[in-house]
Specification:
mainly alpha; 2 helices; CopG family transcriptional regulator
């Protein structure tokens, strides 16, 4: 029997064209893909939220 792989969850974001231009310029400057830059930004934001939640559990 063949095993079926579980699909990787995906999120699709609709980004305002002006915001995308800013992200594109920054990604080009860093020589990375826009999606990688977005993941970096989202990961950093999540870590900041996590830090706040740990330091003040009632803040969220």
């Amino acid at each position: 029997m063949s095993e079926t792989k579980k699909p990787i969850p995906r999120t699709y974001l609709h980004v305002d064209p002006e915001i995308f231009k800013i992200l594109f310029a920054e990604a080009k400057k860093r020589q990375i893909m826009v999606s990688d830059l977005m993941l970096e930004i989202i990961t950093e934001a999540a870590e900041n939220i996590k830090q706040k939640k740990v330091s003040d559990p009632h803040s969220l």
